[in-house]
Design brief:
The chain is built from 7 helices and 7 strands, in the order αββββααααβααββ. With 265 residues, it is α+β, with helices and mostly antiparallel strands. α1 crosses α2.
Length: 265
């Protein structure tokens, strides 16, 4: 086992023990589930893109990365601590709800999802634990599953919980990951806890500027996002697409976290 991985496991154990002493019980950081192969149907239509994107089976963290997990990471990697991180890789609100560099504090329970982390930080964490961030297609495929079936949008209970979460204000303190219901694949919190970074977040919409790039399709005009949608009633998908297209890699927000994935050989 690589030295970095051994250090991670030791630190994660210490953090988890601290969480239990504080009355919380963080989910094990290495817990993953296999998401079966399938196809992702992009929300936006394009004559250049396929109707469906095939997705191979992959492994996905059962829960978002927690404050306890991220504490182990910044403890072992000082350059990612709040006081040391480069502004190229994280903006000024990076981990600013933590009590200190190595002290999450009352506003960041150890068993709650870590938020206010940038894409750069999320990717660095994933690489450190020998994983990666999921792609948009992978994340969306996993998130399409409901509590009992592979198509959550057809489950009344799933839709009720999803849209109730979207309607709620962001809490001052995030709930623990154990409060999220598992889906058919045994994955918690893809909806209902925090928004999540994906590896290719910046390909959510278009890759050029519609007035200057003659190679882009001519339907890139005001309102074309809705006009080109495959399913105009999928409000949650519009929300995710809008969020991803608005982000820069060094951005951090009060409701944006992440989880890791692994390819299956």
């Amino acid at each position: 086992m690589p030295i970095a991985r051994r250090i991670f496991l030791v630190l994660a154990f210490v953090s988890a023990a601290a969480g239990r002493c504080a009355g919380t019980d963080p989910v094990a950081p290495a817990a993953m589930q296999t998401v079966p192969a399938g196809a992702y149907v992009p929300q936006q239509r394009s004559t250049k893109d396929p109707e469906q994107v095939p997705v191979a089976a992959f492994r996905l963290d059962t829960a978002p990365v927690t404050n306890a997990d991220f504490l182990a990471f910044v403890t072992a990697n000082p350059k990612w601590r709040r006081s040391a991180v480069s502004r190229l890789f994280a903006d000024t609100s990076y981990l600013d709800h933590w009590a200190g560099d190595l002290e999450p504090g009352a506003r960041a329970p150890l068993a709650a999802p870590v938020v206010r982390v940038s894409w750069f930080a999320a990717r660095a964490y994933a690489r450190w634990v020998g994983k990666r961030l999921p792609t948009t297609a992978e994340w969306e495929l996993a998130a399409a599953a409901g509590y009992k079936t592979a198509t959550g949008k057809d489950e009344p209970d799933f839709n009720r919980d999803l849209y109730a979460w979207l309607a709620r204000p962001v809490p001052e303190v995030q709930p623990t990951v154990a409060t999220a219901k598992p889906t058919l694949h045994g994955v918690r919190g893809l909806h209902g806890l925090v928004w999540e970074w994906v590896d290719d977040f910046n390909t959510a919409m278009v890759t050029g500027e519609s007035r200057a790039d003659g190679g882009l399709e001519r339907d890139l005009f005001c309102g074309a996002g809705a006009a080109g949608a495959r399913e105009t009633s999928d409000y949650a998908a519009f929300m995710r697409t809008a969020l991803r297209s608005s982000l820069k890699a060094n951005n951090t927000t009060t409701s944006l976290g992440f989880r890791c994935a692994q390819s299956i050989p």
